Amino acid sequence: xxxxxxxxxxxxxxxxxxxxxxxxxxxxxxxxxxxxxxxxxxxxxxxxxxxxxxxxxxxxxxxxxxxxxxxxxxxxxxxxxxxxxxxxxxxxxxxxxxxxxxxxxxxxxxxxxxxxxxxxxxxxxxxxxxxxxxxxxxxxxxxxxxxxxxxxxxxxxxxxxxxxxxxxxxxxxxxxxxxxxxxxxxxxxxxxxxxxxxxxxxxxxxxxxxxxxxxxxxxxxxxxxxxxxxxxxxxxxxxxxxxxxxxxxxxx
Length: 252
Fold this sequence. Notes:
By secondary structure, the chain is mostly helical. The protein has 3 domains: 34-91, no CATH class; 102-192, Alpha-Beta Complex (Homing Intron 3 (I-Ppo) Encoded Endonuclease, Chain A), CATH 3.90.75; 198-251, no CATH class. It has 10 helices and 5 strands, in the order H-H-H-H-H-E-E-E-H-E-E-H-H-H-H. The chain has a 3-stranded antiparallel β-sheet with strand order 1-2-3. A two-stranded antiparallel sheet has the order 4-5. Strand 1 and strand 2 form a beta hairpin. The longest helix has 15 residues, at 7-21.
């Protein structure tokens, strides 16, 4: 017959079991101070242009751990928060009411435009290079293009949708958008300073100072294009295009 464990042994097993199962086997949560959360909200607004933090969003900077879940909890606990904390969140641009789905926001923007809305209607959801993105009929669309297409009830597959008076990429007010050619769009990028040219191009290996120096040294003479290419670490064809004004043309 198997011997039953003693009472003291049973108690020790229970304590060990409780320790192993504490927090459901998950690491203990660390408390993040209120001030750090405010800093994280302000940082999110600076980087994204809005405070509509997705529920599953989390970051690695100070106060950003599970920030989306914290924002969700603050919305549900608004009635229990102190007035001072509500004011601090309002100053950060905190969004207390979720706007609904991105497509519903586009529909509302079209309705507001038809009602005579003149100001910018700023996209509060996900963006790519500053432009709002929305899923419609199984495909991803630029939000401003979809809003404009719905507004005029017509699409132009061979033309691009460009911003007119406001030059705000996040604006989806159809009254601020029109059809334009790729040339028109490129001209607008130069005007607004958003064209990825020169040092702004992520794949650029040279700086503007280096390009001007290459041209100046070649014009003075005494150095070959081959020597310049080896010195700055680019191909001979690149140096040839630079000194002949066919690359980095905005510096000519």
